[in-house]
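Record 1 of the preview.
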Amino acid sequence: MADLKVKDLHLRLGENEILKGVALDVTPGQVVALLGPSGSGKTTLLRAIAGLEIPHAGAIAIGDTVFYDAARGIELPAEKRGLGLVFQSYALWPHRSVFDNVAYGLKLRGTSAAEIKTRVDKTLAQIGLGALAERFPHQLSGGQQQRVAIARALVYEPPVILLDEPLSNLDAKLREEARAWLRTLIVTLGLSAIHVTHDQVEAMAIADKVVLLDNGTVAQVGPPTALYNKPATLFAAEFMGSNNRLDGTLAEISGAHATMHVFGERISGMAHTKAAVGGKATGIIRLESVRCASVPGPNRLKMQLKAPMYLGERWELVFAREHLTVRAYAHAPLEPGEHYVEFPLDALWVF
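->
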């Protein structure tokens, strides 16, 4: 199977430019997550690949099969692209059994009854629903309905499966279980997939590569570890993970490090800024990287503990000083009062 390639894709809806030159590659057996806030263009990009939205510039192809090419006037309809699509709503036929829901598209394509049975039975077995083939959607749990929707996309044996927030209708606990099941299924079957989600944990857990979208453009692309540990922009740093933000004035840049003034004190981190000394600077640090101390020291600010919150496996501590609020994780609560909050040099990014 060849790569799926999206080149310089532009798409507008009415007067609104939704996609502004997006590029994307999916290699065989790779899972790519389209991640971003609402309105970033991730679902529109998925629908453009599927053939449900028509761009006005760019190209989409798998190998030598061109789905769309504005320059050459090529626009292959959705039904001829052969891609599997799983919608956010499962869109199951309520009056058809699990077997018939999965088989319906094959019947429309004129597939023989024997071939339909073979392929549907195989697909249902792969997703663990072989024993439920005769049940109807209302007799299934939300997680089982989601599996039927995925089976319906897989039964065609498509080169790429497109997943539009397929877990969003599940409750939190079931969503975690489904996330693990979906990743296992994808790896076991060697699927190529594009997975749209606004949930960064879901994207990192399921995908081999994350494409982070910001207002119709690609903010950063790479493996989940790169986006989490090496954000390229302030947007990427703030979007990924749970973070604290420190606003201050840039005091110095020395090699790979930048120092900012916060409440008149020097706080240093990894330099990502192009600002001039004396300009505004922003520090971003993950909650899990913040440390608590009882004495002054480098990269520490005196702050007041406002609220310890018990989360089960750990505590979350909320500190405040004037306009600044900092959250940190801890294994045990601290005594009320003033503490020193430390921002480790190699864990703070200065933009």
